[in-house]
Write a structure and sequence with these properties.
Its main location: other. By secondary structure, the chain is of the alpha+beta class. The protein contains 18 helices and 24 strands. Strand 23 and strand 24 form a beta hairpin.
Amino acid sequence: MSSSTDYGSHTWELLLTVDHQHEGVEKEFLLQVTGDLHIGGLMLKLVEKMNISQDWSDYAFWWEQKKCWLLKTHWTLDKCGVQADAKLFFTPQHKMLRLRLPNMKTVRLKVSFSAMVFRAVSDICKILNIRRSEELSLLKQSGDTLKKKKKKDKSSKEPVTEDILNLCNSPASSGLPANPGLYSKTMTPIYDPVSGSPASSTITWFSDSPLTEQNCNVLALSYPNCSPEMLAEMYQPRSLADKAKLNAGWLDSSRSLMEQGVLEEDQLLLRFKYYTFFDLNPKYDAVRINQLYEQARWAILLEEIDCTEEEMLIFAAIQYHVSKLSLSSEAQDSTCESEVDEVEAALSNLEVTLEGGSTSNILEDITDIPKLADNLRLVRPRKLSLKAIKSYWFIFRDTSISYFKNKESAQGEPIEKLNLKGCEVVPDVNVAAKKFGIKLLIPVADGMNEVYLRCDNEDQYARWMAACVLASKGRTMADSSYQPEVQKILSFLQMKNMSAQATSDPESVDMKPECFVSLRYTKKYKSKQLTARILEAHQNISQMSLVEAKLRFIQAWQSLPEFGLSYYIVRFKGSKKDDVLGVSYNRLIRIDMATGDPITTWRFSNMKQWNVNWEIRQVAIEFDQNVSIAFTCLSADCKIIHEYIGGYIFLSTRSKDQNETLDEELFHKLTGGQE
């Protein structure tokens, strides 16, 4: 027994629990401490008392009652507020976590449970070879989706054993972040040291990564689809309220996993959260492009995003093509060849540039800004009557559209001039019905002004649509991306046309069309009919490479009107009913919950400031021209919406400078909030 003279009157006992794997060794230790003892000193005292030789560098104290880590080792117990009743756990900061990836594969790897989720996701993406980690985050599956799955699972007695990819020896497992020296910050291709040829895009950026080429292929290649039966058992949102549930579980990027109740061996979903995919490069992004393709594919199949029948058939044709190529051995070897071709192409381009071959084109682009002039039909929606459709002479110059009564009056003042900079451009096309429309949502003080343009044919539509898309981004038709945009639109229309003209007598092909379309269409059409229409649409893309097909799928997904919208159920200040709020990369949309019709749109470019009243959990936003809104979020924590807005603003600050490192401090400043 120790007498009171051995310890000062200011000492007290603190119970510490150690999370170790040594059998026959105590896990609880009672230490005599003083309030001025710092956390580092407490660790030293505890390790000395345990007298177990092992590496304790990854261990830290977790304060159970306060749900926080004591990571500032120079702080004293008094400064941390630790008293005798505190329960401190001495536990590893890196623990095993199961992650369900967009391609429905599960990986098991060590993740930091003490770092903020933003940093943890960055480390995870380095292990998985996914660039631009800021676009992804971790999602807890909502209880409702799990309950529905469990009800369906009751019918099957034997549980299906899941194939898990174990990545236990990740660089993060040592307790240190992955070696930054091995991260390919400069976009120089990595070369095979043996053959001297460029390494495959699917090979890891890290020499010490646990991703072997075989494991990397699991993440970078799309394997055969699930059965129609499995698809039928998966959770599918039926309404906007159901879609809102999908977005309720995003983790707070400014807090650690442990602080948010995530335990070792728990399963989370790794998903692309922000729909602004920066600098997609087939040479370096094999895993990123595949996971993005898979997230888009499942969103289409489970009807998380709406699309028309002809669009569904195009998506099905691309999936079929990707599935075929992924199964062939040629696809896996094609990457190296394409990279060698790219090098040759780059050298020939350099040769032409040095000879001065393209100078005249550059000068022409600077001095001559093209314009479009055509007869188009203008459609203005009216609330109490039919739409007014009238033909006018339209001129597209710079980033504006002017229209006149006829061609002869084009020298005078226009009836109206529409500035498209910052507007929303939505395709309104039905190839089978020969309908080629462009829907323009032009920002005004109290929301958006809707204008519809109707074109006569595919060529006219492609030229005007491409011009509108560029103008919405503040670019003119002199921009080098104008012609590629026209070609992209034309090829997409051609694919739609092929699917619309499908024949009904296909050859016998080993295809399960039910795997490539949502359940709605498997109920509507017979298998033979679907096969015919998918094969017809497939003819137009049959020459595409694997990466081209995936990128085309992603582009088609991005062109859908609902693309990039994350839904939440909210109650606006002063309103007596609930509404749905859609959050996109550039705007917020208030949507009627019953009809699904948009009521008002507010653009981030017009936003002056936003803040959160944490006491009443209310988000308040101020826009230009004295427009202000406030709402409380009912389907999720208001912090999630606050983080979405700040996150999109943060992502808009990225530039093409490849050596640029992410400003993590700015991200937390914009998204963290002051609770």
